[in-house]
Amino acid sequence: MWYSNRVPNGLPVLSRIPFLPGSGYLWGSPASFRPWRWTLKVKTQMEGDVAVVHVSGKLMGGPESENLRDEIKTLIEDGVKKFVINLRGVPWINSTGLGALMAVYTSVQRSEGALALCHVSDRIQSLFMITKLLTIFDTHPSEKEAVESFA
Amino acid sequence: MPDAPSGMEEVVLPSELEVLDSVDESTLKYSRIAGIDDGTASMVAMAAIEAVTNAVLHGNAETGGTEVRVRYEWEPGRFTITVGDQGKGFDLSCVHDPTDPERCMASSGRGIFIMREVMDSVEFEISEETGTTVTMVKYAQPEQAQGDG
Known about the structure:
heterodimer; A: alpha/beta; Transcription Regulator spoIIAA; 2 domains; two-stranded antiparallel sheet; 4 helices; 7 strands; 29% helix; globular; B: alpha+beta; Heat Shock Protein 90; five-stranded antiparallel sheet
């Protein structure tokens, strides 16, 4: 027997009713589904000749990932050569978000610049490790250390 | 762990990247109930996110009005997640190794690789009529994975 619940955005959710003890089925709608309006925020501050790009939100792919690429592109056009991307506000990314970072890395490399990352979460570090990209990105625990690495 | 409950939950989600947060939370919760440690549960959540990302971006090709079905199943020592889309399937043989030196700098093509690296079992059912369904299993203990093949 199936029961359909409606979650706030109007989509049905299917759950089995635990009509038999020990049936192993769980009542209810998904534990934590909630509508989520994502915005990938990108904000740059200059530390000397180093552009520190603060990223917050979800780096997941989709049109908002272009925000980061566009910001880096603009900075490159302005003549910036040293970049630090601060990922303190990004708890995790998917492979599409990783692709956006790769694209940024490639753009910076082509402009003969240098890129460092800081405040990379454990999950993002794990993703780098799994995809064998740990040696590609120059990562630092703090923004200060990342900026000083260009000294 | 012998007292961990078994259970199943199936949800139908809109085919949008915004649902990834809920998939992440649910995967973390149910994989931990299955006895998977926190560090491994985070990796399992990554694999789940990749599967749903693929369903949204590639399977359903970001088509409005489509859905992604996700089923979570847990029992002591074993967690299973099944993700299905409404697309037209794809050619699995066209998926290449992203760690190949000629491809390692590419900006895409890592999703399935991540799923296979993290999970103990990844199986695809692909159909032009019914889309793609991927079933992934993670065991709490490595020897369980070897025993069940």
